[in-house]
Specification:
Blueprint (H helix, E strand, L loop, with lengths): L6 E4 L4 E5 L2 H8 L8 E4 L2 H5 L9 H6 L3 E4 L5 E4 L3 H10 L1 E6 L9 H7 L2 E2 L11 E5 L4 E3 L2
Parallel strand pairs: 1-7, 3-5, 4-8
Antiparallel strand pairs: 1-2, 2-6, 3-6, 4-5, 8-9
């Protein structure tokens, strides 16, 4: 199955690695294991299997595009609406997503293609990163 593969693909915001295996992503990116990845999900229904959205912000989360939310459980989630990215996500339901580069470095196409198990084309230029909001039961703070 595809659950332990590293995909290089155009995500909804940038060219990135996606996988259900955080340990392999850590090894490839040379990133500390204690840092969490954004979990991209294919629907609000899938999101609800991982976390509870604070009542006050359900409408904001439902309507947000290209926006990551750090939930009260300290994990980050982004519901994907991009049709190209959903072709893969609808098969897997959720993936960890990250930029396709070594931690702290800029994108290098040769590196990215060398370490990926599966390359899904077309790969477009990097676009603007997602907005990030941190939610608590009572507050919504913009991080990026």
């Amino acid at each position: 199955m595809f659950t332990h593969r590293i995909f290089l693909t155009q995500t909804d915001t940038t060219i990135g690695f996606v996988s259900q295996d955080a340990n392999r992503l850590n090894a490839i990116k040379q990133r500390p294991a204690n840092k969490h990845y954004i979990k991209a999900v294919n629907s609000l229904k899938t999101l609800k299997t991982f976390t509870r959205i604070p009542q006050k912000y359900k409408k904001k989360v439902r309507r947000a595009k290209k926006t990551t939310f750090i939930m009260p459980n300290k994990h980050s989630y982004r519901v994907i609406y991009d049709k190209h990215h959903l072709l893969l996500l609808n098969r897997l339901k959720w993936v960890y997503t990250t930029s396709a580069n070594l931690s702290g470095m800029t994108y290098d196409e040769n590196f990215a293609k060398h370490v990926a198990d599966i390359i899904i084309e077309p790969l477009k230029k990097n676009t603007k990163a997602s907005k990030i909001y941190q939610l608590s039961k009572t507050n919504c703070k913009r991080i990026r």
